[in-house]
Write a structure and sequence with these properties.
6 helices, 120 residues, mainly alpha
């Protein structure tokens, strides 16, 4: 079961890197310019995708912030001990996300969905 879960998470992580690259390769020059300039306008902190954030938490990157890892993470999410906002706050504390991420409802909702699907 763990191998299946780790394989599924790996596939999800890879797909989050492949899809933007495919889009950029097929986009007209105007869109490519917009993609490049939006990349340079981002804050200097590293921006994790929601999927990468959940995978990092699953692997134990936020244990020091009180976020459990592996199956304990899913259990804590199910019983309400860990929320998507908690995970985002932990990443902000480590400098992996900008504080503005907490006000991004789409990002929070995606993290919430990914947390809910950890055990599937």
């Amino acid at each position: 079961m763990k191998r299946v879960l780790l394989s599924a998470l790996s596939v999800l992580a890879l797909s989050s890197f492949i899809a933007p690259a495919t889009f950029a390769a097929e986009a007209p020059i105007e869109q490519k310019t917009a993609i490049v300039s939006s990349t340079f306008n981002r804050p200097t902190s590293v921006q994790l995708t929601p999927n990468a954030l959940v995978i990092s938490a699953y692997r134990g990157s936020y244990i020091n912030q009180g976020i459990p890892s592996y199956t304990q993470l899913h259990h804590a999410y199910v019983i309400g001990q860990v929320t998507a906002e908690d995970l985002v706050r932990a990443a902000i504390a480590q400098g992996q996300l900008s504080p503005q991420t907490l006000s991004d409802a789409g990002y929070i909702n995606t993290v919430d969905t990914k947390l809910g699907s950890l055990n599937q």
